[in-house]
Amino acid sequence: MTRIATFNVNGVNGRLPVLLKWLGETEYDIVCLQELKTSDDKFPADAIRGVGYGAIWHGQKSYNGVAILARGTEPLERRRGLPGDPDDTHSRYIEAEVNGLVVGCLYLPNGNPAPGPKFDYKLRWFDRLISYGQLLLGDGAMSILCGDYNVVPTAIDAVVPQRWLGDAVYFPESRQAYAQMLGNGWIDAVRRIHPEKGIYTYWNFSYRGGYDRSSGLRMDHLLVSPSLSDKLRNAGVDVELRGWEKPSDHAPAWIELD
Q1: pTM of the predicted model, to two decimals?
Q2: 150 — alpha (psi -120 to 50), left (phi > 0) or beta?
Q3: Which residues pair with 34 in a beta bridge?
Q4: How far is Cα 90 from Cα 258, in angstroms, rounded to an integer?
Q5: DSSP SS3 for 140
Q6: Judging by beta carbons within 10 Å of its beta carbon (0-12, 13-18, 19+), is residue 140 exposed, middle or buried?
Q7: How confident is the model at residue 206 (pLDDT cuts 50, 70, 90)?
Q8: By three-state DSSP, how is residue 227 classified?
Q9: Which structural domains are found in the chain, ordered by start?
Q10: Are the CB atoms for 103 and 97 separated by under 8 Å?
């Protein structure tokens, strides 16, 4: 069984105690991290290696940043950055081969305030992801594209959908782009396992401490290629992390492959 998780850590150094505790307790085989918010030289590779994980990362000071961790082995880097825009300086995509799987870790632009230039950038980035995803599918390799998509695909993916109508994560264009990926053949693994269930990976920070449960959204996704469809056994979210001390505003989503 191969267990894969994706986690927007919202600052890898600031949340390092949470990350290391979680890695030690869960022992996922492959972990994708987003929003590192650190330059390459400040990535805590030694601390992560200390709990048994090799890592590759694509950092950026104060913003963005993605990493792939592999338990007991070193991820073999295949690419950093999406093709299609040589002028894009954001660290939002990294890809590795781990134990025969092609793993793409992504942090899609948020797009707010929308409409506007940031939303236009989000849609352009999404178009590049869709095109690149088609190349991966065409290769026929066992592939997974996971991370913070900053998209709430359907109404079931929000506790209170109407709260988000003016937010880029819920705009029709964002949801349409996500639907296009599924139409091309990618499988939303968490939704495949839990077709009718309200499952959430993000909650707003609360001014009173803790978090606002009514703000729950599912926008961290693990999309698997059709070649992995028959191997999918389980999926879920480690919700309890959201209640830990100094947590991220996201909780890790995960899948199990046979």
Answers
A1: 0.97
A2: left
A3: 8, 66
A4: 34
A5: coil
A6: exposed
A7: confident
A8: helix
A9: 2-257 (3.60.10.10)
A10: yes
